[in-house]
Amino acid sequence: MRRVIGSWLDGPKGALNHAREQGDEARPKWRGEQLGLPEDGPGAAAPLGKRALAFLIDIVLAALITAAFTVPNYPGDWSLLTWFLITVIPVSFFGVTPGMAMLRIWVARTDSTAMVGPLRAVLRCGLTLLIIPAVVWNFDGRSWHDRLSGTIVLRR
Q1: Residue 65 or residue 15, greater confidence
Q2: 76 or 90: which carries more pLDDT confidence?
Q3: Which residue segment(s) compose the domain that 150 sits in?
Q4: Are the beta carbons of 62 and 82 closer than 8 angstroms?
Q5: CA 79, CA 75: separation in Å to the nearest integer?
Q6: What is the CA radius of gyration of the chain?
Q7: Are 67 and 74 spatial neighbours (Cβ–Cβ below 8 Å)?
Q8: Residues 100 and 62: beta-carbon distance below 8 Å
Q9: What is the DSSP string of 85-125?
Q10: Separation of alpha carbons 93 and 15, rounded Å
């Protein structure tokens, strides 16, 4: 069981230390190596900074779109619905949110080359609302919402 959840409980450095205990052949050298991803360039695991900035862009865009429909009142919780829609629909069919498209990162399934699909996109979005699944990472650069939905965020 430690092998399955240990990296989540201990964090990325704990996962790396655990891999070092197993010997040099088990130690990953870069994020995504265990998944067969390149170290850098297109197809490599997206860095945390780009992911966070893409999320911020999506939140601001959702607030602005909602504000356009609720003027002169504040958007309130309606911006969550807008954020949900601009996250789930594009990720389902194209693998990107507007913020991700601007920063040239995208969501891909880890089990095939098929599109992410609505069920996985809704699961990712719902878990992002809980915040904790989106901010707890393993050494491969995947958070809980990525692992539970079978996805990873990559560079383009």
Answers
A1: 65
A2: 90
A3: 2-155
A4: yes
A5: 6
A6: 17
A7: yes
A8: no
A9: HHHHHHHHHHS--HHHHHHTEEEEESS-SS---HHHHHHHH
A10: 33
Distance of CA 39 to the CA centre of its chain: 18
Residue 80 gets the label, from left (phi > 0), alpha (psi -120 to 50) or beta, of alpha
CB atoms within 10 A of CB 149: 25
Residues 76, 123: Cα–Cα separation, whole Å:
23
Q: Average pLDDT of 97-124?
A: 92
Tokens of 108: 């891909």
- Identity of the amino acid at 107: V
Q: Is the pLDDT of residue 12 over 70?
A: no
pTM for this predicted structure? 0.77
H or E segment and range at residue 154: strand 151-155
Cα distances from 16 to residues 3, 51, 93, 111, in angstroms, run 12, 22, 34, 24
Instruction: Pull the structure tokens for residue 143.
Output: 């958070």
Residue 89: other Cβ atoms inside 10 A: 13
Specify whether the CB–CB gap between 123 and 12 falls below 8 A: no
Within its chain, how far is the Cα of 117 from the centroid?
15
Mean pLDDT estimate for the chain:
83
